[in-house]
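_Full entry_
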Amino acid sequence: MPDATPSKTALATSYSSAEVEELERDLGAGPSGGWFQAYTKSLKELERNGRLRTLAPRLGHDFASNDYLGLAESEELKQAALDAIGRGVPAGAGGSRLLRGNHPEHEALEAEAAVFFGSETALYFAGGFIANFALLSCVPQRGDLVVYDALIHASAHQGMRAGRAETAEASHNDPDAFRDRVLRWRAAGGRGRPWLAVESLYSMDGDFAPLDDLAAVAEELEAMLLIDEAHATGVYGPGGRGLAAHLDGRPNVISLHTCGKALGSFGALLCAPKPIRDFLVNRSKPFIYATAPSPLDAAIVRAALRLCEQGDGRRQRLAALVAMAGEKLQNVCGIPPSGSQIQPVIVGSDRSALKLAAAMQAHGYDIRAIRPPTVPEGTARARIALTLNADEKVTSEMISVLAHELAALRL
């Protein structure tokens, strides 16, 4: 078999001499080395631009997770797992839901979730990303139009890209922009169904969508309204049912509730009218061809929903923490509070965000940098997530340190 490592002559046609020497050092000799040149070059470019991602351990006080109610490591969910194991719930499903993977725990969870969230049906997926992808790649049809908020999650973008419908972006949190996009499409001959895709609470800015206004636009235009409640489920609404709780159950509303954030467990529940659920079961490839989520996880989510419904004390503690932190951020750091448990500290450049996050981590506060393309260019930030894993004293001390590090960063 010939050596697959490219020669210096071949390398020189693509890279400068300095890059050739760098690649040769990194790739080494042997057939396998030459296979990864483009990847290595891409990674080095990310590193030069301050955008190389790496996996880092969990260290210090938690200001990075989405475990808003502190349920992920709670004794209640640990006991729920032990109880489920004790009654014989298996760790694995063994196959897709359409084969032998459909377990009574899945069906019990979906029935309970539909009642809890006030929807006609629910369908359990392994995560919010795959649920969003499954929905948007499958349900809007050719000839339809999906109008999406400019700051909607990457999972929605991936789903739309794989789907059949036309797509159009609307300005962030601007119901009139959604209406205008649909009306322009209609004027140009669009005859299918409009779909409006939004989040109820945006994960990087921590701001709330004007859901009632968007629901009114959807009614006016006979559009379906898709609401991703990922960061609101468990934290807002009666019993933690989310910001769109008063809209769930309408025939033109589909809501997504992730289970791995405030619910402290795993997976996602897509709440929808029965025809949509049945269509996904029959036509959605991510559902049809994937091994079913663990029945044990489904059992834990059932317990998490019960804890959520009884969790007003947790939500009140979190609300008090958010209020205290918002006031201190404004007074000490000059940062306008988002009003939610997600607080961005926008510093602009990628390197500044990395430097600020590293400084806070060195003080014992686990805060992470968020950079483009996750957020728009020029808005790199440290993302502060307020959870019940860090109390008011620790949070207050963190903000004092943050003020000092921000001042140092601006020097």
User: Anything to note?
Assistant: The chain has a mean pLDDT of 92. The chain has two domains: 76-309, 312-410. The chain is about 45% helix and 15% strand. The domain at 312-410 is CATH 3.90.1150.10 (Aspartate Aminotransferase, domain 1).
